[in-house]
Amino acid sequence: xxxxxxxxxxxxxxxxxxxxxxxxxxxxxxxxxxxxxxxxxxxxxxxxxxxxxxxxxxxxxxxxxxxxxxxxxxxxxxxxxxxxxxxxxxxxxxxxxxxxxxxxxxxxxxxxxxxxxxxxxxxxxxxxxxxxxxxxxxxxxxxxxxxxxxxxxxxxxxxxxxxxxxxxxxxxxxxxxxxxxxxxxxxxxxxxxxxxxxxxxxxxxxxxxxxxxxxxxxxxxxxxxxxxxxxxxxxxxxxxxxxxxxxxx
Length: 249
Prior knowledge:
Elements: H1 2-14, H2 48-86, H3 89-102, H4 105-114, H5 117-147, H6 155-182, H7 186-213, H8 219-244
Helix pairs in contact: 2-3, 2-4, 2-6, 3-7, 4-5, 5-7, 5-8, 6-7, 7-8
């Protein structure tokens, strides 16, 4: 009987994956790889099914990032054609902004490919920083236009380019957000918010073109300031998503 009790105590002290993991001796010690008889109690979660899950998640994540990037690439190409036809500087600024924003997908894609939670989290923080920079740029440009009013030309074409930008970014946002929720990825959800910001900026381009055409160019920078507030709110939302989301390993 005492030997059975000793065995129970020994099992309890050495069981991995439960709350208790004590050693009755002091000094350095090492764990050897678990042998076959350990598998019944081995609760670390290194089962082959979970490895397959992480590979599947990695592939799905890379696929979602690549699809969104392809959509944004097509959007930028369409806007580039419009820019080549019109030479609109406002459109060029939007084009550069969209191109730069699409680049945040690269670290996120790498994180999914590496199956690294840490890299994914860092990519999420980079996305939040990019959204915040968008807000700063919108504020700067709006204040500049209030001080030095300028009326862009090619209004119809500008509105068309804005519509293309809105459609592409909104679609990319949907792809990222759905995949982010499905894969439980705060970084991908934040990148969806990021594309949503760009969609709203494109909407603001359309609104500005309409305001100028209607003979109220003062509305152009005011719309820009309104957009700054919206983008700052999305920045805060994305920051909470990336910071406050529990990670599941």
